């Protein structure tokens, strides 16, 4: 007699929906988990979370329904199902008897931390980091070498941001670049970049 084992492939949301509310709340106590769950949400659900992330009070369900066009109600219902199933938001009675939605406070706080960073570093820790040479105060920072060489910091940073979206291995023209930008590009070449 053969034993048949059937494996089911699930996505993250299907798996998390099966977990108990207590386990989900414990998971949402970690900023990295909240960010991972957020990244896997459908685009419309991400939009809902971002719109509600900094609200301190429930939002009427009627107002949320106005965020989508009439022909996208199916997408709206799917988002509501996903967000409710993952316990990312729940219904709450508003004054006057209306139903409202509110983000899970644990998820909301930890997603904020993941996106914006945590609390300020304690003074003891900052002193330790300064003494170890891992951090500097503003007074300790030298004048930017770019500025002393007559290079435009905004132009250099804009170029670096533009470069970060370029395709690796592809050639790009330097025609039309300013002299300071060409000098900076030469410095990057010397670094092997």
Structural description of this entry:
The longest helix has 13 residues, at about 75-85. About 50% of the residues lie in helices and about 5% in strands. Strand 2 and strand 3 (about 100-105) form a beta hairpin. With about 190 residues, it is mainly alpha-helical.
> If you compute it from the alpha carbons, what radius of gyration comes out, rounded to the nearest whole angstrom?
25 Å
With strands numbered from the N-terminus, the spatial order across the biggest sheet is 1-3-2
Residues in helices, as a percent range: 40-55%
Shape summary: extended
* CATH topological fold name of the largest domain: Arc Repressor Mutant, subunit A
**Into how many domains do the coordinates divide?**
2
Distance between the termini: 62 Å
Number of strands: 3
């Amino acid at each position: 007699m053969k034993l048949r084992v059937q494996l089911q492939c699930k996505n993250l949301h299907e798996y998390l929906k099966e977990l108990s509310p207590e386990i989900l709340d414990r998971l949402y106590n970690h900023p990295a988990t909240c960010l991972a769950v957020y990244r896997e949400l459908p685009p419309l659900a991400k939009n809902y979370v971002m719109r509600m992330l900094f609200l301190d009070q429930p939002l009427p369900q009627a107002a949320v329904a106005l965020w989508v066009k009439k022909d996208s109600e199916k997408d709206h219902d799917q988002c509501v199902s996903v967000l409710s199933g993952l316990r990312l938001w729940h219904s709450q009675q508003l004054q006057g008897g209306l139903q409202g939605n509110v983000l899970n406070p644990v998820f909301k706080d930890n997603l904020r931390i993941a996106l914006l960073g945590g609390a300020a570093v304690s003074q003891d820790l900052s002193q330790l980091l300064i003494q170890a040479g891992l951090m500097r105060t503003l007074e300790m920072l030298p004048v930017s070498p770019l500025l002393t060489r007559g290079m435009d910091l905004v132009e250099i940073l804009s170029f670096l941001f533009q470069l970060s979206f370029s395709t690796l291995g592809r050639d790009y023209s330097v025609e039309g670049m300013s002299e300071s930008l060409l000098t900076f590009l030469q410095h990057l070449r010397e670094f092997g970049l």
